[in-house]
Amino acid sequence: MRSLRKIPIGGLLLAWMLPLAMAQQAILYVGTYTRGASKGIYAYRFDSASGKATSIGLVGETPNPSFLATSPNGKFLYAVNEINQYQGEKAGSVSAFAIDRSSWQLKPLNVVSSRGTGPCHLVVDHTGKCLLAANYNSGSVVSYPVKEDGSLGAPSTFEQHSGSSANPQRQSGPHAHSVVLSPDNRFFLSADLGLDEIFTYRLDPAKATFTAADPAFVKVKPGSGPRHIAFSPNGKFVYAVEEMASNVTAFSYNASTGSLTEIQTIAMLPKDFTGVSTAAEVEVHPNGKFLYASNRGHDSIAVYSIDAAGKLAPVDTTPSGGKVPRSFTIDPSGNWLVAAHQDAGGITLFHIDTKTGKLAKAADSLDVPFPVCVIFLKGR
Questions:
Q1: Beta-bridge partner residues of 240
Q2: What's the confidence (pLDDT) of residue 344?
Q3: The whole model's pTM is what?
């Protein structure tokens, strides 16, 4: 065994500090709408100890990368291209990139059709073998095999939703808005704003295929418009933010069947608010004690506590620091919330009080044109 006496004290200190320093560093990727000065996907180095973000700049050019996802091993990044025409087909597309781990630049791998119009959400399964995407405009979900080099194969399963709901202006047809994996990777959920339904699908990641679960879906109150979904860390509860009603609905989750049972619906807006606002994003804190949801119009982040039964109680409503907080995310340390404002062109940083859940706005903000998605790189 090598004697510690032969290792310089400075070397020991560096060896001890290096993992700590790495743990405090994260990479933030930002998807945008490509209009004006925006060209695609941007990146920042983020220090979770100080909350400071350092711009890397434009790392990948691609049209309207309105939602991003990374592979579990952190080697690949995927983006929906929220467009309605792709190579003469009435469809959007999904772009695959390899991540350069030294510069964090994105190397294009391939682009595939999303098989529907207006793709808006995607996720890579926990094994890294399957990618799922949701098409908002046409109301469908699709799966792809992920190849060894990170590129995407031809679609392996396609499911077209059908029907309508209470609001003729916004719910005359299906609008699949999200695809979210269960913690055990056996199922995924898809919220359909146009149908007021949340679908459950059984996933076979090895084959990159899926089938309808039994029961196949749960309904929410007509006219609510479910948009995004978050699981509690323990996998016992699911929370759906409802875009049109500006509510969060809580469900208990049956891990054996993938089924949902509603336990609570709670408002996101103050009772005295009389303007126009729609809900956007929802996320549960890694400690499982708090839930955050964003309001566009009221331009705020609603904060709730979560009790042992999965129910929510209001904690605070914090101004988001800009206009139209379409997306936000929590950094890997659980100490910071990063909110992207679609119309203001800015990203606001908040420190999270992990004992109370409350947010405190940081002095710094990030200037990104038309930011619509923020994610931290996984698998570093």
A1: 229, 249
A2: 78
A3: 0.93
Residue 11: Cβ within 10 Å count: 10
Domain 4-376: which topology? Methylamine Dehydrogenase; Chain H (2.130.10)
- Mean pLDDT of successive 10-residue stretches along the chain, which has 380 residues: 42 44 81 96 96 97 98 97 95 98 97 98 98 98 98 98 98 98 98 98 98 98 98 98 98 98 98 96 98 98 98 98 97 97 92 98 93 88
Could you tell me if 37 and 76 are in contact, meaning their C-beta atoms sit under 8 angstroms apart? Answer: no
Instruction: State the virtual CA torsion across 58, 62, 66, 67 in degrees, nearest 10.
Output: -80
Domain boundaries, the chain: 4-376
For residue 380, the model assigns a pLDDT of: 57
In angstroms, how far is CA 322 from the centroid of its own chain? Answer: 19
- How far apart are the C-alpha atoms of 3 and 88, rounded to whole Å? 67
Angle in degrees, CA 25, 28, 31, rounded to 5: 175
